[in-house]
Amino acid sequence: MSRLPTVAIVGRPNVGKSTLFNRLVGKKLALVDDRPGVTRDRREGDASLIGLDFRVIDTAGYEDHDAQSLPGRMRMQTEAAVAQADVALFLVDSRAGIVPLDEEIARWLRASTTPVVLVANKAEGRSGDQGILESLSLGFGDPVQMSAEHGEGVGDLFEALLPLLDKIEAENVDDDEDDDRLDGPLKLAIVGRPNAGKSTLVNRMLGEDRMITGPEAGITRDSIAIDWLWEPAGGEPRQVRLIDTAGMRKRAKVQDKLEKLSVADALHAVDFAEVVVLLLDATLGLEAQDLRIADRVLEEGRAIVIALNKWDVAENASSLFNGVKRALEDGLSQVKGVTVMTVSGATGKGIDQLIQAAFDTREAWSKRVGTGELNRWFERAIKANPPPAPGGKRIKMRYVTQVKTRPPSFVIFGTRVDQLPASYERYLVNSMRKELGFGAVPVRLSLRAPKNPFDP
Q1: What is the value of pTM for the model shown?
Q2: Where is GTP 1 annotated to bind (predicted)?
Q3: Residue with the larger pLDDT of the pair 88 and 272
Q4: Does 397 carry a binding-site annotation?
Q5: Taking burial as the number of CB atoms within 10 A of a residue's CB, which of 53, 280, 292, 378 is the most buried?
Q6: Which CATH number fits domain 371-448: 3.50.50.60, 3.30.200.20, 3.40.50.1110, 3.30.300.20?
Q7: Three-state SS across 260-319?
Q8: Is 362 annotated in some ligand binding site?
Q9: Is 218 known as a binding-site position?
Q10: What confidence tens digit (pLDDT) does each residue in 323-342 have?
């Protein structure tokens, strides 16, 4: 199986890199706003350009700052993306013309070994003619003239990339044995409040500084998906699709437009995850916002694992752990016994156990119960605790069937089941979790009465 060639989009802030990224992947994956510096981490996606398939990387705007500052750390991420890419798309703003920072980026790119395609963006109409002429001085030949926002010039970009990507794809052929041996990737989203250490944990898992981290809260804005091969000690490697998300603060505190977009993006990532790790800051304990996030995850039907991060610096560890478990039992009444783990993104302790717990949780979330086992449970549950008889009329529960998995969902058919109290429904769901092996994953239960043929 051929490895998809990789194309990195680079340029100074606000030249349209994320707009081009969205155009190439055919979806609005990257956050776009008029202000510069929206993108901070590298975002990757599968692109298809007139039948030419490749992996595209959206990078942060390249700025000249100290390496220890946030813009400096963003620049280091961009440099790493170009070093790993097969081709770099160097975007300039044709309407603004060439500025000193463009010239600095050009010097850096000329010193790299990655082939460069110069793209003059925002070239619709005649407003970009002067900037297009100025771009010839950068030393990359004639630019591809296009408008990422309006889709103009896509054919010219295709012609520029085709000879480069065809050559790379022919040279890079991967062995596909792992694809045959491994199960589907675990889609694992990491969520939590700002500064809980989500990006630090992801970097530790990957063994590289893939995500920008630092003491500033709210560095991550986009939800970033990364493919990772987890290699547990003494076990078979397994594929994981890690999704790092922006921190989610209390809704009333979220005023900035970009933060609203980031939170919406994080919630969107939850929708596409299989298992969600809610990361707590062990130095702060469990807060009301953590419970709100957990409740949202469960409402979406996703399996959840709670991880206490920064465990290496936590004080009164035993009482803290027990206190969090008690608070979860009280605060998440719809699901009892959620798995709680302790980890350290700084040291890596507990990561293997966390990933294994996530795989185990996905297995329960995906479980389908055999008809015989389901019927036997149903009979035992009703015999142990018969349904009530409101107004002296018995509620007859005839049979149950599983209609779907992920999350496991069931329908019970019977007469007058619309009068079944919520407490009895909770009894049935809790009994399912305990006896059928669903643990703390969400379980959906619907009640259906057969239609009366004499009803009008």
Answers
A1: 0.59
A2: 11-18, 58-62, 121-124
A3: 88
A4: no
A5: 280
A6: 3.30.300.20
A7: HHHHHHHHHHHHHCCEEEEEEECCCCCCHHHHHHHHHHHHCCCEEEEEEECHHHCCCHHH
A8: no
A9: no
A10: 988 888 888 877 888 999 99
